[in-house]
Specification:
This protein has 18 helices and no strands. It is an all-alpha fold and 410 residues long. The model has no long low-confidence stretch (mean pLDDT 84).
């Protein structure tokens, strides 16, 4: 129901802004631009879905091998002490636990192409436990928030874009991004736990979250010892090695269990194809709404209004010039990437605005895209508190990025 209101709001607000621009400013190009955007975004939604088909087929095929080899169940047993606290409605040792962990691990390594198929697999397995098939369950929402908070240990793409923009030190945003995205993720977990009345003050969760913070501190310290060029090389290499090890490890485990690895892969790959087709309507709906919102000039008007308010109050508004990236990120990953590149091009990659836009890009994820794709894959219509929790985690990431940006670069 919440998505329904948000979707309608995109169209109504965009139409109202476009009318104002036409009537009071004589902008005759706004409505043609909006219509062009609807066609472009419809095409883009289809292309994204088709582009996902290959990756879905690959990773759901690999996951099927892992399931039949018993690796997913083994992983679920290992993680059950933590996951039974964070996802109390998922039975102990359920296969969904393994898929959830692999999705989170892929996200942390910045492996988006691997994370999405694994996330869709996790949603499919959680749906088997759902007594109301059209309504999001508590575990689904917690899982979605973990995804939308965008925890990434190795932001390879952002570092690469900074290098392309000839930043003096492309990796100088690495530690700030890591801190900002950690704040978003921990905040998301806490907020969702409050909604779902999950007690985080127990030995297992305190040790887990404490260990996670120490792990982050270790990564920060280790990477701080590396030269900028070496940091990027290590980041890329580690991600690729882990990814390839998973594929080969699953195949070897399947051979050890004497299953037909090829047939298992094909079985899983077929599921990937049907999933890709199923999410097309949901992608079209949201990408078209977002495209109209942008083309109407609503985003520009919003930024101008925010800047005017802070300037009027005598508060430093330098960060507002980077805000388009933060506002676009929950709506569109490619749109936010474009905003980030535009900020670095216009203000310079080593400027405060250029660096802060990178922090915004890395601190959260594409909330509405993830909701549309993940919930759409299992035909969820009622999202309950998923949108609120996801957006609050995003807000925490944005605020943390601003504060950390001033701390490091202000």
């Amino acid at each position: 129901m919440v998505l329904n209101y948000i979707w309608i709001a995109f169209f109504v607000i965009a139409f109202a802004v476009a009318l104002v621009k036409l009537i009071f400013f004589g902008d005759v190009s706004v409505f043609p631009a909006m219509m062009d955007s609807t066609f472009d975004q419809s095409k883009s939604a289809f292309e994204i879905s088709i582009g996902l088909t290959g990756m879905l087929a690959l990773w759901l095929g690999v996951m099927k091998i892992g399931e039949k080899a018993g690796l997913v169940n083994a992983l679920a047993r290992i993680l059950s002490p933590v996951f039974t606290k964070l996802f109390p409605d998922i039975p102990k040792n359920h296969p969904a636990t393994g898929a959830i962990f692999m999705n989170i691990a892929a996200n942390m390594l910045g492996l988006d192409n691997a994370a999405t198929p694994l996330g869709l697999k996790a949603m499919e397995q959680m749906q088997t436990l759902n007594t109301k098939p059209d309504t999001a369950t508590n575990p689904m929402i917690m899982f979605l928030v973990l995804n939308t908070s965008g925890l990434t240990l190795i932001p390879v793409s952002i570092l690469s874009y900074r290098a392309q923009q000839h930043a003096a030190q492309p990796t100088d945003v690495f530690i700030p991004i890591l801190l900002a995205t950690a704040v978003a993720t921990i905040t998301g977990i806490i907020i969702t736990s409050i909604y779902q009345r999950i007690n985080l003050f127990n030995k297992t969760m305190v040790l887990t979250l404490g260990g996670f913070c120490l792990f982050l501190a270790g990564i920060v310290y280790g990477f701080s010892l590396l030269a900028p060029a070496m940091m990027e090389t290590v980041s890329t290499s580690v991600a690729a090695i882990i990814l390839m090890s998973i594929i080969v490890g699953f195949i070897l485990a399947g051979m050890r269990k004497k299953i037909n690895v090829y047939d298992a892969f094909i079985e899983g790959a077929k599921e990937g194809f049907t999933t890709a087709v199923r999410i097309i309507p949901y992608l079209v709906a949201f990408l078209v709404a977002i495209g109209i919102f942008r083309a109407s000039g609503t985003m520009d008007a919003l930024i101008a209004g925010i800047k005017w308010c802070f300037v009027s109050l005598g508060i430093d508004a330098a960060w507002v010039d980077a805000l388009p990236t933060a506002l676009m990120k929950p709506l569109s990953g490619s749109g936010a990437r474009g905003m980030m590149l535009d900020a670095m091009t216009h203000f310079g990659p080593d400027s405060f605005v250029g660096r802060l836009s990178c922090l915004f890009q890395g601190s959260t994820d594409t909330t509405f895209y993830i909701l549309a794709v993940y919930f759409g894959s299992v035909n969820i219509r009622y999202t309950r508190h998923a949108v609120a929790c996801g957006l609050l985690a995003d807000l925490a990431g944005v605020i943390a990025a601003i504060l950390i940006g001033y701390m490091f670069f202000g």
